[in-house]
User: Fold these one by one.
Assistant:
Number 1:
Amino acid sequence: MTVTPPRRLVFAGEAIVDLVMRVPALPERGGDMLATSSGLAAGGGFNIMAAAARQGLPVVYAGGHGTGPMGDLVRSALAAEGIAVLRPPDPRRDTGFDVALVEAGGERTFVTSLGAEALREPGSWDGVPAGPGDAVYVSGYGLVPPGAGPVLGAWAAALPDGAVLFTDPGPLAVGIPAGALDPVLARCDWWSCNQREAALLTGASDPPQAAALLLTRTARASVIVRSGPSGCTLALRVPEPAVTVIPAPAVEAVDTTGAGDAHSGVFLAALAAGLPPEAAARRANAAAALTVTRPGPATSPTRAELDAWLARP
């Protein structure tokens, strides 16, 4: 199957707010911990959109957003990146948020509270202008909630030919109901997850083995398994099934928040720029590596920054 490079990203995910708290370590159960710093920032799907937009790919946010301080923060961040917002604010709810605990070594742990970005009403996605020439991003966060998941899954499964469906199950991968997940698996063109998520879905801790197993679970998709500092594994379906490990540049991680998001956004932008999947994955690996050297949830580089970093001797 030949896929035309996308001309824009239609983001059918969830832009929420990150409450980022830096801690020496996670507190014990029932305990407490003083954060060394904390702050609010747009996060969740915003990180992916910002990563793609900073690489020059036009982005439209098709998800929900609410009325209140969280929604205001997200809309302001989207506007600053030049990202168009498709829907009006939901007057009944505010945008959701998560608490991100970032340990001294850069690892992060999340607890998420969903809000207006979770669209539960039948037909919520019917008016989204996604078609041939678009890349459409769907997250597992949108497929998990009862009511919202099946609505989003059915819409994604019915996307017309020529639209590139990119799916990332996220940390809640094993919690996605089959009724929402299976139609998306049957339709998606790219399935991207990290090593932990791939192991949970397949039982295989080895990324190439997990990628190969995931390839058998989809009808048409190629697979990316991200392995942090080790890079990623790319399992392509065409012209014939092939699994390749693509290394990442070695860096000292400061904050891993948003690394996977940067990888996905830059990968899609690289495909849109005409790069073949292997080259797009190398560029995405480099963007994720550069991202983890910077503190904060949305620190993916611009195209000029990434080009300059890759051109270093």
Number 2:
Amino acid sequence: MMLPKLYSKIVLVTILCCLSCVYANAQFRLTGKVFGSGETKTPLAHVAVMNKTANDMTYSDDNGAYTITVYAGDTLEFDQLGYFSYKYFVGKITGPLSKNIILSQKKNVIEGVIVDGRTQYQRDSLAREKRYDKALGYEQTATIMSPVTSLYQQFSKKYKDLRKFQHQYADMEQQKFIDTKYTYDVVTEITKLTGDSAAYFMNTYPMEYNFARTSGALEIKLWIKHNFKEYISKPFSSTAIQSDSLQLEKK
């Protein structure tokens, strides 16, 4: 009677060991969000999420959310310009994986000034290109050269995310350039709007990239002044302007 029981225990232990090995080598999806340090914990978009072990990479979306394939024992790195990188080790996996990350922002410490003739936007843009060179350099394989690879890249989530990121990156770069020309300070100077009213005005009258690229400071001021005349003629604007005036009086 002892042998069947002993045999059953050996079989059970063997099965559990096999399942443990399979589970340890299984592929999982790690999900989560990336936030910036601070009281508000703002979600960070376009954070590079790199699986250093598997040489894989993805990026957080506009809401800071990310998804990446991992195995037990993989090392991940979260990286974005202006923040300290964060490393995360994937330990023993026992269930669904979720990990929220908080990146600490670097303080701007100026140790010296190098005059190179480039604007701050140009220097930041070059730094971003260097940071995301792998994703920006991706081009889908031509169908004629390698039809199987081309089809895989067309329908694979990984490569769909890469193409989506490239479009998002181009839009982001254009908006960052617009932000160097169409600033809160300039709007306040021309319109005397402040706070939420100035932000609302800027959202109501967004500036096109081509106009920002080809226009000088005077043209931009005239453009703001022209749009402000239209803005104050609308019913909703008078209440906002009065609210700004009351806030200035209290100060």
Number 3:
Amino acid sequence: MLLFYIAIIVIKKRSFNMKTKLLHEVRAVKSKKELANIIKAQRISERVLADALKELRLGVSEIEIDNFIKKSFVKYGAPILSFSPIVSFGKNTANIHHVPGKSELKIGNAIMFDIGCTVNHYCSDMSRTYFFGKPTKKQEKIYLAVLEVQERVLNKIKKGERRAKVLDKTARDFLTKRFGKNSFSHGLGHGVGTVIHEWPNLKPKSEDILPVGCVVTVEPGLYLKNFGGVRIEDVILITKDGYKNLTNISKNIESAILK
């Protein structure tokens, strides 16, 4: 009798997991209206980032830029954020969840932004890294490596690869080989919708398959303790022919150098 009840529990658990997975998959595929909200939120985020770059100056603090970003989202009609903005300078860019503080901007600093807002409850998400003045050779090397690995992943998606763990492995193997095992310390990306971290998950052990019509981030990063980090994050739409990049902010090395 005990074995009978155990079998019933196992069957119910499997049924629940299958229903949950199906719900996630249905939710992940965005309608035209849902996609329009995400794109609008993304465009607002891009305007806010462009404005924030103009506020960067010698001696300005992370928290000052953070406050400016929050006020700018209100100005553009998107007061509800996807998450608290990340603004980090110098060595703080090595902390993937850095909380903006009193650190002041100096010549030669890396600057990392991770921002997003909501439109009709739908989220945007974007990371960019800049250099306040000419980057060192090491800074440039790290930036170009992150940019290259993002392009490698996007090319795989363009060719039809949809397995999340394969895409994550593409990025992780490339960065680990060049910069060490712990240099890339988070997943490659995640779904975006009414919550900022939605199914599917692009991480090493993920069994998720990216369905056509879902919106995901592709955000490789490198984080070197006591030195700094680089993260480049785009939001993309998975299409029948590959993908469509929904992020319009430049990311080549020239655009990353602030003079």
Number 4:
Amino acid sequence: MNILITICARGGSKGIPGKNIKPICGKPLINYTIDLTNKLKLKWNSKVALSTDDQEIKAVAHNLGVITAYNRPNFLATDTAGKIDTIKDLLLHEESLINDKYDFILDLDVTSPLRTLEDIEHALELMIANSEAMTLFSVNNASRNPYFNMVEENANGFYSLVKTNTDGSVLSRQAAPNVYELNASFYWYRRCFFDTDLKSPITDKSLVYVMNHICFDLDHPIDFLFMEFLLENKKLDFAI
């Protein structure tokens, strides 16, 4: 089994300037993802590949052992560029170097590092056990439920539940169907996924891995401060 681990880290973040290499608890943020890849390389036949348009990010990654001659093309370094196209371009580059195809691709998001080695391993086991699955992504139980306490504007300008179940109503949160939030931490892909024209990891043959611990993405400065507080004060009950 041959695995490509991708790290996509674009420069020019607007929400948190320089967030991919912004220090958190004395380490650049990207350091936490690279630390995990070092553990994974001890378990699997895998290659770690970096996609960035930023030379400072590339230099930090180089100092942490991730060395690459690949530069993300300008058309994939915009705010509107899709993540799937970015991963695919990197994948094709890496496969050209080995003249072979990878079996699985694991994409690790730099800005959502609250994941464990066990999360990644168990998620891959789910993928291997279901040969039809094309993708798998990490999720948490949702804090809000579209069947119970999420509403949207309807055609007549009033507001109603986003979803209704078969009997038309859910009277308690506990009675609502289970729903999950993507936490943007990691994504598994079968190689065949990148032979399609799909632009989203959410397909009709997708699995989820439900994390049993906190995990969230760094979108705003307050998110960074919150995560730094958790790490500095050892508030996590798991090791990343």
